């Protein structure tokens, strides 16, 4: 586990802390001809050697370095084909982590992976998934008739409300699992403070009622999911 942790740390440092924006821009513009692509890959190799400080792992580091080069190169050529740049980014990061995992546990990869899957808390996974997009869709359907009657005189970020709702429900679920019900009250208070100016300036009773219903519905569904999960484990 320590080997995987150190390799992951090297990856995080190399990909995020020690990769300037100009390197990224240069790589995206020049792709395979970019000098920073090779410098970036060599930096990763150096970080792995530095953190492991054991040259007996040179084969592992070589495999990871070569795979990192081809994965980064593949992402550079795939990027222009995606409107949503987060997709190739997260796929690339996932593949990097899978390569690290495979290199560390290659001797008993199947057995180790099977043991990890047996540790998954499936009720928790179900609760987390439920309070994310499924709840957002359910709320959209329930509130659809009301939202059509609301006149909004200000612009907001696309899907900002949906993502805020998902994040707040994840917080609520976490607080319930940890038994910190008072933190939910603080979360509601914080959201009310942020919303106060919008509601005050709009002076729109329908908007106020719509936001209040949406907030209570969002928190309520997260609380129900949390109570069911906690009850499942009692």
Question: Can you give a write-up of this model?
Answer:
The chain has helices at residues 2-17, 21-30, 35-52, 58-78, 86-104, 109-117, 122-131, 133-142, 144-147, 160-178, 181-202, 205-232. By secondary structure, it is an all-alpha fold. It folds into two domains: 2-117; 122-232, no CATH class. The two termini are 31 Å apart.
Draw up the topology in text:
Layout: H1 2-17, H2 21-30, H3 35-52, H4 58-78, H5 86-104, H6 109-117, H7 122-131, H8 133-142, H9 144-147, H10 160-178, H11 181-202, H12 205-232
Pfam families: DUF3307
Protein name: DUF3307 domain-containing protein
Keywords: Membrane, Transmembrane, Transmembrane helix
Which terms summarize this structure?
single chain, globular, 2 domains, 234 residues, mainly alpha
């Amino acid at each position: 586990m320590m080997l995987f942790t150190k390799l992951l740390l090297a990856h995080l440092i190399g990909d995020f802390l020690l990769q300037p924006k100009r390197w990224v821009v240069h790589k995206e513009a020049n792709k395979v001809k970019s000098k920073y692509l090779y410098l970036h890959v060599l930096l990763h190799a150096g970080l792995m050697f530095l953190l492991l400080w054991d040259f007996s792992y040179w084969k592992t580091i070589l495999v990871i370095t070569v795979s990192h080069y081809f994965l980064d190169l593949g992402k550079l050529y795939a990027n222009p084909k995606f409107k949503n740049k987060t997709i190739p980014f997260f796929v690339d990061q996932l593949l990097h982590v899978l390569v690290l995992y495979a290199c560390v546990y290659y001797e008993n990869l199947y057995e180790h992976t099977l043991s990890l899957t047996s540790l998954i808390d499936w009720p928790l996974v179900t609760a987390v998934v439920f309070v994310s997009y499924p709840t957002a869709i359910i709320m959209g359907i329930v509130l659809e008739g009301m939202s059509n009657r609301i006149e909004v005189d200000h612009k907001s970020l696309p899907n900002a409300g949906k993502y805020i709702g998902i994040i707040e429900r994840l917080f609520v679920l976490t607080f319930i699992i940890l038994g910190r019900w008072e933190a939910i009250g603080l979360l509601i208070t914080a959201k009310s403070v942020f919303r106060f100016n919008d509601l005050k300036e709009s002076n729109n009773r329908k908007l106020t009622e719509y936001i209040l219903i949406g907030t209570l519905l969002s928190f309520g569904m997260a609380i129900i999911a949390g109570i069911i999960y906690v009850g499942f484990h009692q």
